[in-house]
Structures are given as structure tokens and as C-alpha cells.
Amino acid sequence: LTYEVILVDCDGMPVRLCLDLGSNLAARCPEGAVVRFSGSARIHEIKNWPVNPYVAIWVDDPARIEVLALPTFWERQDVRRALRIAGVVLLGLVLLAIVGVIWQRRHLRHLQERNEELELRVAERTEELREALERERKLGLVKSDFVSLVSHEFRTPLGVIMSAAEVLMRYFDRLEPEKRQRHLEMIRDSTGNLAAMIEEVLLLGRMDEGKLSCTAEPLDLEAFCRVIADELNSATKAVSPIRFEVLGDLSGASADKSLLRHILSNLLSNACKYSFPGEPVRFVVSRVEGETCFVIEDHGIGILDEDRERLFTSFTRGSNVGMLPGTGLGLVIVSRCVEMHGGRFQLESHPGVGTTATVWLSLFDPNASLLPASKPSTLTA
Residues of 103-126 as b/e, b for ≥16 C-beta within 10 angstroms? Predict the structure, then answer.
């Protein structure tokens, strides 16, 4: 083991003096001091490597070493070594602090992202809860309307049926044939009305459950529409006769017969029901610009402006219908059926003047040739 004092010779080569530890040279000659010595010395080691080359000299007699100059505080090797160590430690602390800041920022960003994600989930759950509550509220209203419908609309035909049946049971032998026939017709008509209302309720239920689909098949559109018009004229005894018109060639049509029947029968039934007695209902079918246009125009009580939007809500009827029977489902069913058929539905009405319902459906092959067809004036009414 040696104690080294670095010297600089004339060529700037560092020189290390190697002495025994018992020389106590460190007390008066710190590393970095300028010394000279006399007497003999031998070369201990020479290092000519590219990094930190030096010459080490072994001094046999430390008493011959004379200290010429002591290093300043900042030139002392131990101070420089301590400063280097402190610098390394400080650099390490700075790097550690930077790493800590980066980690903290990432952690905060992660927490912020988690917080935003939680807020988004809470917002989504809140929206779902709001929608669920809204659906529950609407379902409650529907149930209330349905109860009201059952207690009023269903009770009327049932009352007629029970009354007519009771009269027939008690006085059948004493009734004239004409009166018997009239009571039987009352039972038949009331039963038909009740069956129609129940069918509308069940149909809407199937739509809500997604059990109703649109399946198009070829049909004779003109004959199909004419049959529906004739059936309603017969059912209503032509109190408001339906005038059927065809504009253009309707051959080659394809449609879902069930959906189309629901659309036309509901619109025609409403037109006849709400028309003034004796006023005809105009039913026009035409082929316009590749689409089939159905126009049903009546001259009846019309729809009030404040009722227009409400009529597309289940079990809702106009406030001016009075005692006329109905379920409040007709326009809802028509709107759903038109939508399932990929069509459009427009309703124009003026109170006391009448209502015009227009339905556009794509029932023809778009590549098929079209014959000229005049556009009904009711489309621009």
C-alpha cells in the first residue's frame, strides 16, 4: 500500500510518488502538492495507456522530499474527489427527482384518465337510468291509457252485445223478425268492432316485440286496393262512400300484403269514420317517379293543430272526436308499417275541412320501365 502525491514534470506527465504508509507524508504533503526530492529513486511503474497515463516513482527515503507548495482548497484532490462524488450524488438526486416528477405526472394523468372514464361511465349509467325512468314513465302512461281504453272503448261494444243478447233471451218469442234481426246485427257489429280493437292492440304488441317483419311478394296492386275499398264500403254501408281511382300502370308491384292492408284499411277506416255523412272519400293510387303514391282524402272533422303530434302516440285520440269509437292506435300502426316498408307518410289536415293522408312506397323494380302517370293534385294540397 502506498500514499501518492501527484507531480507534474517538464513534459506535463503526472508523476506519482510511492512511499510507505509509515512515512506520515500525508500529514504535511497532501495530494496535489508540489514537491522536490533529492537522492535516489526508482521507477515503480509507467502507464502509457490512452486514458490517464502516468509515471510512478518509488522514493526510499521520505525525509528527502521537500514540499515546495501546498495546493489551494479547491485544488486539493480529496476536495475535488468529494466534489465529484457530491456532483454525482446531486446528479443522481436530480435524475431521481426528474424520474419522480415524470412518474407523478404519468400517475396523475392515469388518475385523471381513470377519473374521466369513471365520470363517463357515471354519465352513461345516469343517461341509461334516465332513459329507463322515461320508458317506465311512458309505460305507465300507456298502461293508464290502455286501462282507460278498456274501461271505455271496450265497454261500449260489450255493453251493446250484452244488452242485445239479454233482449233476445227474454223476449225472443215476442219480438218481430225485424227486431230480432236488428239485435243480431247489433251483436255482430259490436263483436266486429271489439275484435278489430283487440287486433290493433295485439298487432302493436307484435311490432314492439319485433315479431313483425316485411316480406314483399308480387301482387295485383289495383285489384288489391279495390278489394279493400269494397270491403270498407260494405262494412260502413257506404255512409261516406269510397271513390277509388287509379292513375297510370300499376302492374309489376311487390309488397308485404299484410303491412299494406294495415296501412290502407286504417287510413280508409279513419277517413270514413271521421267524414261527414254523405261526403265521399277519395282514394287515389298512382305510380309517380318510380314510387307508388297512395292518397286518401276525406271531408270531415279534421285534426286540431294541438293534437297533430299527439296522434302518433299509442292510445291517443284527437280532442274533437266526440263519441266516435276508436283505440287511438290507427295512425301509430300506419306509421310503423310504412316505416317497416321503407316508405314515407304525410298527413295534412284542417279542422272542419278534412284530412289528406299521403303514403309513398317503393313497390316497383327501379330498373323497370315506367309508363307516364299524372301526379294527383292532392300531393300538393
Answer: eeeeeeeeeeeeeeeeeeeeeeee
